[in-house]
Structures are given as C-alpha cells and as structure tokens.
C-alpha cells in the first residue's frame, strides 16, 4: 500500500508543477498545498485557472506525450479508488471491536 501512495504522491507533485507552469506560475507556489484551508482555495484556483496562451516563462508549449496521457488517465482513476478504499478501511477499523 505504501508503494501505491508513494506513486500517487509523486504523480501529484509532477502534475501540480506542470499545472503551475502552464499558468506561468512558479512551482514554489505548490507549497501552498500543505497549508490547511488555503490548500482548498489553491486547488480550486488550479482547477479553474486558464493556462497561458503560447510560450511563457517556462518555455514553449509542448505536445503531451502518449505515456503522459496514459499515466494521467490511470491517476484519474486510481486516486479516487484509493481514496474510497482508504475511507472504507478506516471505517472498518473504527467499527471493529478492540
């Protein structure tokens, strides 16, 4: 299970940095994700902000590679499934007699 979450963490960081660069923002802003409450508004910003048109401070627009699309799709499916599984396991452990 640790391997699963390590991969999710890695992909989350990669996609966070790419999204920030797409919006012409520094990757250091990604540290906002660890601040409670602010992280909710930051994620809403990342979901709603329009990326820059054409080249920006982080280079020209590049074509997304096929393997990146595949990893992104896998991430989009596995993250919610892992989250649901984690919640179910937590609920089961709370209801189990000690």
UniProtKB/TrEMBL annotation:
* Entries under Pfam families matching the protein: DUF805
GO cellular component term, pick one:
plasma membrane
Give me the segments passing through the membrane: 5-21, 27-49, 70-92
> InterPro entries from the entry?
DUF805
| Keywords (A to Z) from UniProt | Membrane, Transmembrane, Transmembrane helix
Chain segments annotated as coiled-coil in the UniProt record: none
| Statement: the UniProt record of this protein carries the keyword Membrane | yes
Question: Which domain of life does the protein's organism represent?
Answer: Bacteria
Q: Indicate what this protein is called per its UniProt record.
A: DUF805 domain-containing protein
List the lineage, top down. Bacteria, Pseudomonadati, Pseudomonadota, Gammaproteobacteria, Moraxellales
């Amino acid at each position: 299970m640790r391997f699963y979450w390590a991969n999710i963490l890695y992909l989350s960081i990669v996609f966070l940095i790419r999204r920030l660069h797409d919006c012409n923002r520094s990757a250091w802003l990604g540290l906002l994700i660890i601040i409670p409450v602010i992280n909710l508004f930051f994620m809403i910003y990342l979901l709603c902000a329009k990326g820059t048109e054409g080249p920006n401070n982080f280079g020209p627009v590049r074509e997304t590679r096929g393997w990146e699309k595949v990893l992104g799709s896998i991430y989009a499916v596995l993250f919610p499934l892992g989250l649901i599984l984690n919640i179910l396991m937590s609920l089961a452990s709370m209801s189990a007699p000690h």
